[in-house]
Amino acid sequence: MILNFFYTLLHYVVEIAPSLAIGFLLSGLIHEFIPQSWINRYLGRKGILPIFYATIAGIILPLCCFGSIPVAIGFRKKGVSLGPILAFLVSTPATSITAILVAWRFLGVRFTLYLCLVVVLMGVVIGLIGNFLSFKPAKPQPDICPMCEEGKHTGHLHHKGGIKSRIVSVLSFGFIDTPREIGVELAIGIVLAALVASIAPVGDLVKNYLVGGFGYLFALIFGLLMYICSTASVPLVHAFIYQGLNVGAGLVLLLVGPITSYGAILVIRKEFGNKILLVYLGVICLLSLVSGYLFSIIAK
């Protein structure tokens, strides 16, 4: 069993490494060449377009849940309405360039495209609902990169002129900052995936008790209680599906797990109140279950 675990772990590492390298590089490029001020300018208007912009920005920005929180608070300080903020908080941790590449490799094209579509839909829906909730935006403040404000880019030549400085900034963010932010979760996710795939009792548990509706309930509860970043959750979900978990339930876990981290829950409660937090969690759970069930029908 131990040898099987290490063999499976090595298999996951070898499979995931190229996608991670590409994703880290793209993360650095996006962070360096898409300034925060450009994003804020398009989120300052009212209507559905800012919600859509916030959703798409959340998908492509190289931030996990914890990295998205200071950005979302920055949006609030700049007077952005509640709808785009909630849309951003949903779409940012739900997926990323790295997660999309890894999901494409492990779960296939159809699953990955459906996942992206669901994330966009969830972002737009939670954003539209957020626009109807009572919320008092803060007064706009000058634009500043939240990560620079926190001192995370000291010595990294962030957004400095010159091709050499910009290359250093791209590489330092992509291969130092990003792994530092999600590295632990990523390692935990890969180890858990290897355990799920290699330990027979886990497979028996999935096959005997987590088939059908119980699989969805398990995915929802497990996702709410345990946070794993979007990239790290992909191999874990793949392992559960391999052991017999319904593919729709796997989608639920892949959505709920990254979005409902304890950090996001605590910050939303503090900044926006219990009512908005309950609406936020309720919409995420409902849309995840519906989307997962529909995909299980489509995937047949």
How would you concisely characterize the structure shown here?
79% of the residues lie in helices and 0% in strands.
What attributes does this structure have?
mainly alpha; 300 residues
- Radius of gyration (CA) equals 19 Å
Q: How much of the sequence is in beta strands?
A: under 5%
Helical content stands at: over 70%
The coarse overall form would be globular
Fold and architecture overview:
With 300 residues, the protein is an all-alpha fold. The protein has one domain (2-298). It has 15 helices and no strands. Helix 1 (2-33) runs antiparallel to helix 9 (163-198), helix 4 runs parallel beside helix 14 and helix 11 packs parallel to helix 13. The radius of gyration is 19 Å and the shape is globular. The mean pLDDT is 79.
Question: Which helices and strands occur, and which strands form pairs?
Answer:
Layout: H1 2-33, H2 36-43, H3 48-60, H4 65-77, H5 82-94, H6 97-107, H7 109-131, H8 146-149, H9 163-198, H10 200-209, H11 213-225, H12 230-242, H13 247-259, H14 262-272, H15 274-298
Helix pairs in contact: 1-6, 1-9, 3-5, 3-7, 4-5, 4-14, 5-7, 5-13, 6-7, 6-12, 7-15, 9-12, 11-13, 12-13, 13-15, 14-15
